[in-house]
Amino acid sequence: MSTAELRVVYRSDDEWTGEIIATVKSGTFSARGSAWFDRTHVKETFLANLRSFPLTPANPPTIEGGFWNGTGSLEQCHLRISIKPYNTRGTLLVHVDLASQVGKTKTPDADLQNSATIRFLTEYAAVDGFAEQFEKVLDGKEDDAVLQGDAN
């Protein structure tokens, strides 16, 4: 199997919000994308869910950002990370969607938007370590967090 990884960095804008930049590769495929998040919300939802055991396919730990509408629906997704069970042996599937921001409007022009979906397999121990690193990144104590895995 070839290697795969998800690398995230956080650029703080103020005390509460900042940009999460994700670079993901699996085999020969790679992509980079970003979105803005409330760091406290990321800790209380995504990271807390990553640390739960076992992860469930019905409600996997997920973080997503981009342009939202007034009713709380995501109109243009720029970054989505989701981790869910893959098989009964405890293997996990990392699913990352990345897309470029199109214009200054919230409605994407599909002809101009670049996007990528990259998936790879990992294990609980790697996800636990990633969650710890990611929290340190959000607190400004580490530069990046890396989740290692295997490409198919």
How does this model look, in words?
With 152 residues, the chain is of the alpha+beta class. It has a single domain (2-151), classed as Transcriptional Co-activator pc4, Chain A (Roll), CATH 2.30.31. The protein is 18% helix and 48% strand. The chain has two helices and eight strands. It has helices at 39-50, 124-138, and strands at residues 2-12, 17-26, 29-38, 62-68, 74-85, 92-99, 115-122, 145-151. The strands form two sheets. A four-stranded antiparallel sheet has the order 3-2-1-8. Strands 4-5-6-7 form a four-stranded antiparallel sheet. Strand 1 and strand 2 (17-26) form a beta hairpin. The termini are close together. The mean pLDDT is 91.
